Every structure is written in structure tokens, then in C-alpha cells.
Amino acid sequence: MSKPLKQIHLAAHFPGVNNTTVWSDPKAGSHIEFTSFAHFARTAERAKFDFLFLAEGLRLREQGGKIYDLDVVGRPDTFTVLAALAAVTEHLGLTGTINSTFNEPYEVARQFASLDHLSGGRAAWNVVTSWDAFTGENFRRGGFLPQGERYSRAKEFLATAGELFDSWHGDEIVADQATGVFLRDAKAGSFVHTGRHFDIHGQFNVPRSPQGRPVVFQAGDSDEGREFAASSADAIFSRYATLEGGQAFYTDVKDRLAQYGRRHDQLLILPAASFALADTDAEAEELAREVRRQQVSGATAIKHLEFVWNRDLSAYDPEGPLPDIDPDVSDNHISKGRAQVRMYRDPLATAREWRELAEANNWSIRDLVINTGNRQNFVGSPATIAKTINDYVQADASDGFILVPHITPTGLDDFADKVVPLLQEQGVFRTDYEGPTLRHHLGLAHPDEASDERAAS
């Protein structure tokens, strides 16, 4: 007897300031005007997606002392954008990336509880830590936490926020018989937390929200990050969008759940994925090549190489060979606020590998970056992409995907119109929303129901 088909979860990552973005395309629009956010969100909702996802940048990135080109338009505040989108959508989940290193539990819990009320139960929190002292300078804290401490703080941060969300649980409103005024027990919202990172007490001033707590996402890939997700998250934002890599990650993380008394279906694994969609597979392949060359201009290729070499390479021709000099392995990085710097932990080994690849394939600097950097995960006609996505999900390489188009704000339109109907015809994606909250979309229990279930077991 064959197992039933899994239902696919789809979400949309607003492209904004990331390396998939193609600014030079005539269809590219603003990354900061509200009309762009609104169009993108409405398209995702029209396609019955689970949620919209916003990344967060707490400081403009720099390269060689200058603002990195993708950041020149700035980075608007996550909560402000999501609250505004709550007013122009009805069902779409609203997921924001909020840092646990530089914020405080009361402040973040209050903002998410408010967003959950305003949206009718559609809020989600992608919990992240900050890794660099450069970003920390905006908060007068620099790199005050070593890497191991960041997850320690994040775990306590999330637990403390949970105590605040739950502080109104079970309190009943009663009417004063003499005055007719509705009153609540004075202990409503009361909290006391004493721990290693936080020592706070008082009263939380936002009542229990529709979801009880926002849906919690986590994005770490380290062993500690995976363990954090298995213990505390509702979904994990994965970077493994290939079949084999996705299956290995899926098995590893899902197998960690049992030790926390959780079932496999209580944590969703959702990789980010880009796509090149055209009428035929051949046209899509050509589009994918064109997009990659648009994404990696000559200047961008040089900047990417500087992540590894940690040197000013502006004098080098991007259409020429790789530098003969070795990378500077000092801790004084010329790239500030760039996550890519962490990816190349052994710059000398990476440089040797890249030189060998460039020599074997007769690649220029730009060719190398195009061929070793991020590529479109799904390339093909609507039928091909629909089949590939479904194959991955049914093979337990993921529970769905968070799609990152290369055009803002219309890059999701064709996917919504051409791929989603095919998934719906196959019976693996909803034709309409079945409940009002994001927890309904994701098939996740309300925290109160989950507590009752654990108590019963």
C-alpha cells in the first residue's frame, strides 16, 4: 500500500537586497516602496501560499569602506512592513526575521503579539543570532558574545518570550457587579524570569493572541542550530535545495525531534529556492544562463572574489584570470556585515580549488563566480518545475519551498499563474485556505492544544 501524498508548503521570500536580485532588468521595481511589497504579497496570497518571508539587515554592508551596491536603497524595518501588509491581505502568513542578539524579549514579544492580533493570527518569527561585531556597533555591543553564547542567549530569549506570550493564558474577564466595568485578575500578564541572560519581571500588556504564540522559524545550519530547531522551532529555513542534500538534512533534523518528545510533523523543513520559468525547458535553460550573467556583473564578480582573498582586487579584470597572490588570512576583513565571509573558513584551500577549476575550464574571474555561486534550483517549463518540486517533497527532501524570485516585485507572477495550478491539479497543493491562521496553513497545532496533547501522553 503506497503512502498518501504529502501536501506541499509554498512560501515567498521578498527578494529585496540579496544576491538573487537583478536590478538591471527593465521589469525590476523598487525594493523599498510599499507598492512593491503589496504587489508581491497579493500575488503570494492569490496563489494560496502559506506565508511571505522577510529577511532583516541591521546594518548596511560594506566592501572596501563603501556601502555594498545591493544595500544602497536601505533596509526598512520588518515589523513596519509586515503590519502594513496585514492590512492589504487576509490569509497570507507574515514572517519576519528578528535578531535575538541585540533585542530584548519583552520588546520582541510585544511586537509579535501585536502583529498576531492585527493580522488575525498570521504572525511568524524567524529567530536568528548576529555573528559580527560590525553589526553590533549599531547597538553599542560589538561582538560581545562568542559564537557559543549566541545560541545560549537565543534559546533563553525564545523561552522568555514564550513565557510572556503565555502570561495571559487562562485568565478570565469578570464584570464588577457594582460598576458594570469589566475587570481582569490583576495577575494577568504577570511574569518573572531569572536566568543567565535575562532577569526581568513585570506585566506583559498584550493579551493572548489568536495563535497563542507566533509560528517560530529557525535558520541555523550548524549542529547547534539544528538542535535548536529540533527543540524549539515550528519550521526551519534550510539552504539544502538539492535532492540528495535535502534528504540528508531532512533525515538528520527530523531524527532529532524524538528526544524532545516531538513528532516528525511538528517541524517543517523549508529550503529557499530560486527558479527560472519559461514556456519550454530549453527556453528556461537559456533564461537561467541570462539571469546568472545579470546577477554576476564584472564588479560583483570582483567583490565576490574579495570575500575569499580579503584584498582589494579592483585592479583585476573580471574577464581575466584569477589573482596569483594568495588570500590575506588576517582577521581584518575588508567585507563588513557579509555572511559569505563565514562560508570560506579556509581561504587558502578555497583559492587553490578555484584556481584548479578556472584552469581546467578556462574560466575568467566572472565565469568562476557564475559557475560556483548560487544557481536557479528549479529550471524548466511549468510542468517540469511542478514535477520537480513535487518529486522533492514526496522523496522527503523537504516539506516545501520558500521561493526567491530574481525580479521585484513581479517575479512571482508567472509561478502563481502557471505552476501552482498544476500542483493543484495533482492534489498536492491547496485550492483555497482552510483556516484563518498561519498555524492552519502549516498544519501546526495551537500551543494550547499541543500542551494538552503532551499532558495526555
From TrEMBL:
Task: Give every Luciferase-like domain span.
Answer: 24-395
UniProt-listed Pfam families: Bac_luciferase
Which terms are listed as keywords in the entry? Flavoprotein, FMN, Monooxygenase, Oxidoreductase
- The EC designation for this entry is 1.14.-.-
One MF annotation (Gene Ontology) recorded for this entry: monooxygenase activity
Broadest EC class assigned to this enzyme: oxidoreductase
Give the matching Gene3D superfamilies.
Luciferase-like domain (3.20.20.30)
Write out the similarity annotation: Belongs to the NtaA/SnaA/DszA monooxygenase family.
Protein name, per record: NtaA/DmoA family FMN-dependent monooxygenase
Instruction: Identify the species of origin.
Output: Streptomyces sp. 900105245
